[in-house]
């Protein structure tokens, strides 16, 4: 823990000077595949989250080079359920190779060797906490293996910190690794407490040598955390829960446990963007607007306010923007002039996929009526959406930024909605196309 406490100010200066900064030199990641990979995704870690920056298919022996203009950053490369965290910096090429079950380095530089060593060192403790889904449930009920592995990792991490300190090279990376190690050590422990299969037991059972040092006012003091650790939202929530579990009569908002204003803002925006009801945004506006000072945070806030404007004034429907199959961005107003019937769906939603043929059949049946049928996908994957939607006879759009689904609080899909010729919402939850009721509802609004 001493490394974490001593490096906060240093890393704050370095992050502000370098992280996310633009450069003329390109940061490159080359990915080669030994298998037919339907989708490979590249995420950049920023604002305490993973932000997708590229996705593509790869044929066997095919390769792709992703290029970025930032000075340096941490990334996550994902194929199926396999992930690899890497570090890249301007002027250097990171090479990876994808197999059926792994994403491996090809001649990694010294920074990625250090990062890889940490992941190998923490593999068992990680497996018994944040990666618990792959464990037999009987193993989880044996809490001792996690405690033993965590103790072993606590000891090993001290030596690992010393190795990081001996590293000569990129100061940003050195300090980032110290911060990442200390953060993940704590995250493993607080995550283990809430694994559903274990139940919510008396936290007094937890070993003092592991859990006694969790609460520390310096833990969320370094904004560099936002660039190296992608689980800010669950980590922050679990940490605050631990800090106040002994006395719930004196509960405080989670961000009151964060010293860094930048981390507070990232946490507030993260939850507000995830929330589909507008409640989190309303709380933010009432209590925390004074924290928003940077141009970037104010821009994100303004975008959120525009998305949720409809919830404050139901007479105004936002002119949402959607992605077309050819990647053109178009507003919903492009389709005004006719009654609009929308099917909100996703490729991963079984009921959605089963009902799509019925929706398309109804669109074909009513093609001579004054109505436009539109499929609105909430898929994260551009490729999966295009592969499915390209065969449709309806207008197919993608709610890429989730502005539409968030504004209307759509927590379940499929969802069928009817809008007037002027874009006003008429029916928020229309019947399924698998029955004749949807057609009757449409005809009613056509005045037939």
Automatic annotation (TrEMBL):
<dbReference type="InterPro" id="IPR036249">
    <property type="entry name" value="Thioredoxin-like_sf"/>
</dbReference>
<keyword id="KW-1015">Disulfide bond</keyword>
<dbReference type="GO" id="GO:0017004">
    <property type="term" value="P:cytochrome complex assembly"/>
</dbReference>
<feature type="domain" description="Thioredoxin">
    <location>
        <begin position="311"/>
        <end position="448"/>
    </location>
</feature>
<dbReference type="InterPro" id="IPR050553">
    <property type="entry name" value="Thioredoxin_ResA/DsbE_sf"/>
</dbReference>
<dbReference type="GO" id="GO:0030313">
    <property type="term" value="C:cell envelope"/>
</dbReference>
<protein>
    <submittedName>
        <fullName>TlpA family protein disulfide reductase</fullName>
    </submittedName>
</protein>
<dbReference type="GO" id="GO:0016491">
    <property type="term" value="F:oxidoreductase activity"/>
</dbReference>
<dbReference type="Pfam" id="PF08534">
    <property type="entry name" value="Redoxin"/>
</dbReference>
<dbReference type="InterPro" id="IPR013740">
    <property type="entry name" value="Redoxin"/>
</dbReference>
<dbReference type="InterPro" id="IPR013766">
    <property type="entry name" value="Thioredoxin_domain"/>
</dbReference>
<keyword id="KW-0201">Cytochrome c-type biogenesis</keyword>
<keyword id="KW-0676">Redox-active center</keyword>
